[in-house]
Amino acid sequence: MSEALIRRYYAAFNAGDWPGMLDCVTEDVAHDINQGPREIGRAAFADFLARMERCYRERADDLVVMVSADGLRAAAEFIIHGSYLVADEGLPPAHGQGYVLPVGAFFAIREARIARVTNTYNLTDWLRQVGL
Question: What angle do CA 65, 71, 75 make, to 5 degrees?
Answer without folding.
Answer: 30
